[in-house]
């Protein structure tokens, strides 16, 4: 046996597919950096015990560019040529996760995990065919959790008399991805049940930066609320600037780009007043988040974002399961994933047995809403998480 083969036997090799280039690369690179910190910390603490022997963790990354066909090719390489012990089949981009999870039945002895992908379609597939997708797990919350936060925020603002929602008409500007479609669908359904009227949906390419045609329609239809859903920070920057330029008066809710480091840096004063979902990472007001940001900033020399925090927690969920299983035997490792009760600074990860998705709520994972005030995010909903009051846009 070659020295390389022997060295590989001493490692737990975990594949990870992410957009490391392309419009959503900022998310993928941040997740990759966080995973590398997870491995570094685990290895510094002695690695993980597998079948009575301590082994180091090694992440193997492949670039999907956010494209399903590239994600499938990357997964085939990691599963066959690299023979990884487990696979994060898409750290970002639900369309990639939905495509690659179809490989799971062909590799029934491997764990498949998504990253921060929120499309509820992933969870619905797992729930509908539990035997087929028994080895697929979804550590990121579902799009219906975003919908609950948006609906709860608007209901609270109206009840408290903070905003005049007029005819309760909501319009959407969303990117042309499963992520955009699933969030728009879930938010619209929940708002419709609360008496909201549809004000139209504008679908744009990922990374779009010219919103003047869409804003012309919205200026004419005058919706009370605009919900925008992008994974590309440049789209959010362009939209908030062009909305201010056109003088559109609608209440604006951003999902989820409002918290991106690149958005905050590039959107200027136009971002002030923007409502943003979710604010799960709040280093300005949460001491544990602040300690995490300071520690990782020393390691990475970059501004630490919510994506770093998500990557860190999700990566550690996998490592925690391996530490408890103490083996790579699939049945035992899968059982360890099912029994997960892992506390990270963002919340507590416990999986729903039907959907293999994290439980949501104050005692598990919570998704507060924020408003950008004087250039900084301030949690404004729910009241239990609020660090500031809503300020009129």
CATH architecture of the largest domain: 3-Layer(aba) Sandwich
Along the chain, the helix and strand elements come as HEHEEHEHEHEHEHEHEHEHEHHHEEEE
Shape designation: globular
The largest sheet, given as strand count, sense and whether it forms a barrel, is:
7 strands, mixed
Radius of gyration, in angstroms, nearest whole number: 21 Å
Task: Give the neighbour order of strands across the main sheet.
Answer: 8-7-9-10-11-14-15
What is the CATH fold-level name of the largest domain? Answer: Rossmann fold
Terminal Cα span: 67 Å
Task: Give a description of the structure.
It is a single chain. By secondary structure, this protein is an alpha/beta fold. The protein folds into two domains: 204 residues, Response regulator (Rossmann fold, 3-Layer(aba) Sandwich); 154 residues, Response regulator (Rossmann fold, 3-Layer(aba) Sandwich). The chain has 13 helices and 15 strands. Strands 8-7-9-10-11-14-15 form a seven-stranded mixed beta sheet, with helices on both faces. The chain has a six-stranded mixed beta sheet with strand order 2-3-1-4-5-6, sandwiched between helices. A two-stranded antiparallel ribbon has the order 12-13. It starts with a helix and ends in a 12-residue tail after the last strand. The N terminus is likely disordered.
In short:
With 393 residues, the chain is an alpha/beta fold. Helix content is 41%, strand content 20%. It has helices spanning 3-9, 25-44, 68-81, 94-100, 120-128, 143-159, 178-193, 212-221, 233-246, 261-266, 287-300, 306-325, 330-338; strands spanning 11-18, 48-50, 53-63, 86-90, 111-114, 136-137, 169-175, 197-204, 225-230, 251-256, 275-276, 342-344, 347-349, 369-373, 376-381.
């Amino acid at each position: 046996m070659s020295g390389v083969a022997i060295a590989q036997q001493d490692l737990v090799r975990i594949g990870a597919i992410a957009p490391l280039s392309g419009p959503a690369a900022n998310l993928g690179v941040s997740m990759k950096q966080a995973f590398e910190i997870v491995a570094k910390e685990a290895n510094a603490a002695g690695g993980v015990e597998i079948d009575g022997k301590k082994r180091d963790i090694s992440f193997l990354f492949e670039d999907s560019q956010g494209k399903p066909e590239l994600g499938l090719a990357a997964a085939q390489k990691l599963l066959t040529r690299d023979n990884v012990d487990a696979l994060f089949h898409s750290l970002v981009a639900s369309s990639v996760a939905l495509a690659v999870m179809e490989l799971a039945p062909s590799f029934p002895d491997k764990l498949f995990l998504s990253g921060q992908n929120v499309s509820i379609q992933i969870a619905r597939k797992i729930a509908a065919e539990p035997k087929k997708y028994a080895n697929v797990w979804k550590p990121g919350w579902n799009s219906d959790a975003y919908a609950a936060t948006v609906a709860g925020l608007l209901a609270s603002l109206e009840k408290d008399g903070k905003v005049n929602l007029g005819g309760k008409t909501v319009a959407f500007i969303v990117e042309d991805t499963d992520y955009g479609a699933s969030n728009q669908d879930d938010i619209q359904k929940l708002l419709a049940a609360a008496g909201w009227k549809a004000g139209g949906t504008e679908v744009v390419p990922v990374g779009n930066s010219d919103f003047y045609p869409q804003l012309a329609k919205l200026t004419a239809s005058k919706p009370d609320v605009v919900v925008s859903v992008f994974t590309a920070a440049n789209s959010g920057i362009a939209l908030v600037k062009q909305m201010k330029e056109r003088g559109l008066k609608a209440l604006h809710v951003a999902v989820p780009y409002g918290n991106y480091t690149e958005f905050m840096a590039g959107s200027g004063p136009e971002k002030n007043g923007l409502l943003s979902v979710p604010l799960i990472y709040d280093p300005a007001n949460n001491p544990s988040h602040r300690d995490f940001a300071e520690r990782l900033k020393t390691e990475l020399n970059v501004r630490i974002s919510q994506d770093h925090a998500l990557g860190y927690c999700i990566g550690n969920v996998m490592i925690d399961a391996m530490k408890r299983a103490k083996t790579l035997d699939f049945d035992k490792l899968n059982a360890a994933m099912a029994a997960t009760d892992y506390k990270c600074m963002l919340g507590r990860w416990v999986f729903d047995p039907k959907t293999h998705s994290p439980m949501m709520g104050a005692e598990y994972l919570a998704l507060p809403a924020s408003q950008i005030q004087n250039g900084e995010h301030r949690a404004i909903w729910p009241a239990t998480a609020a660090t500031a009051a809503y300020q009129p846009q």
